[in-house]
Amino acid sequence: MVNFFPELYPDELLYSGIARYHVRVGNLDAKSTLRDLYDKDTITAVVEMTSNLDTLINNLPTVIYTADEIIRNHTMYPYFAAFIPKDRADRLYQLIKGNNGSKIYNELGLSNKILKLNNFLRFCPECYREDIDKYGETYWHRIHQVAGVDYCTFHKCRLLDSKISVRNKNRQEYIHAHLEIRKYDIEEMEREQKCSLFSNNENILEKFIVVAQNVKYLMDSNIRHQELNYFREIYLNKLIDLGLANRKKIFQDIILLKFKAYWGEEFLNSINCNFDIEKSSNWVTTITRKHRKGFHPIQHILFINFLGLDIKAVFEEEINAPRKTNVISIKTDEEKSTYRSKWDKLMKAFPDESKTQIRKRDRSTYTWLYKYDNEWLKKNSPTKKVGSRKEQLIDWNKRDEEILILVKKAINEIKMSSDKPERITITLIAKKIKKETMLQKHMERLPKTKAFLNYNIESLEEFQLRRVKWAIRELDNTNAIYSKWDVLNKAGLRNILIYEKYLNEKNI
């Protein structure tokens, strides 16, 4: 048993904690550290999910950590196990605790072609600076090492590659993040990154951020594991709602074209998830079929977002996915009458809404009827309206006024918020007021809203100035003396010219 082990930081990889232990105790070689912690020196330094965890726990000072705490908070188990059935997730969990690490990736059911890993350990330059301010050192953040996560979820900036290979030549060496990264010219690395392919493409940047935020949800949540085809049933039902499938056929050709249009070739290539439309074995086609093999979490994330689903709802809510069962559920006439009445009231209250829109107003009623009274539900739901007729029913002047009120309120709340500023963009406002589709497809029909948005959206420089003003207010509240560098650090900026522009505006 060792007398000391460093406290693991939030979202720190176990690999990183072991590297810090190695430096703190002053061991001359990696094998000495392995013998300290694992009672043997043949352990491989694995970034994502290591094994022999029970041995490690037994060798740590009493009651510092449990195996469950480390597995869920300091390995990539929650991410890789999210979409696999409970029995396989349990076996994977036991492999991490036990001494048979060679079987860990086989249990995921992913081929080597699908299970792509980053080439190098990565870090966020802003997290690096904040870690030093907060802890006096930095560490390897777990989410930064996920393949497909190219941007920091907190700072929205591009992750930088270190010089440390994920599959190090010395397979037993644990590299200390702080001692490594402090050797780099980070500002030069950032300048090079700004010249990269995606730096000025806001659309692609937003896609990276969406993927990263979905990964973070999987990492941070205690997922309830589902049967293998649970997700396929959810996807199928949503495809039916979107008119991309019916109970007899999935319209694969249309799905493939729409999927590529939604994510874009450039983005799919960048995260190694592109596919050949001509091949019927492509992953987008097979993910909608009966699941006989595993799919990478990134592939699920891409498909979930393509369908317009919320990943949290997929795991935490009862979505309209029928459960196949051998037990016949007999429902009383009284129950049917109750749910039918609820549905009828919704239909009368919202006569112009589609079935999908009404369903969102009362998911439990819809789900019950879908499962147990489906024929009645089909006959008593809104029929699909012809697009031109539906648009004729909409009073666009009234709709414009209604949305304008929401937009003004949202922008005012953003500007008045004491939280760290968010850049005012059309995308952000659309999300705030939950009108993404309306503003994306019908902006030309909303002239007042469009004019107000165009006047109020922020340029990058305007946003940076607002961050400076926010940082100064925050620092003023501390009643402490601070410098311009403190302001820039608080604002998350590095450009001194922005601060000087602020001073010029104030005539200071």
Automatic annotation (TrEMBL):
Domain spans labelled TniQ: 4-159
Domain of life: Bacteria
Entry protein name: Transposon Tn7 transposition protein TnsD C-termianl domain-containing protein
Transposon Tn7 transposition protein TnsD C-terminal domain mapped to chain residues: 212-318, 331-453
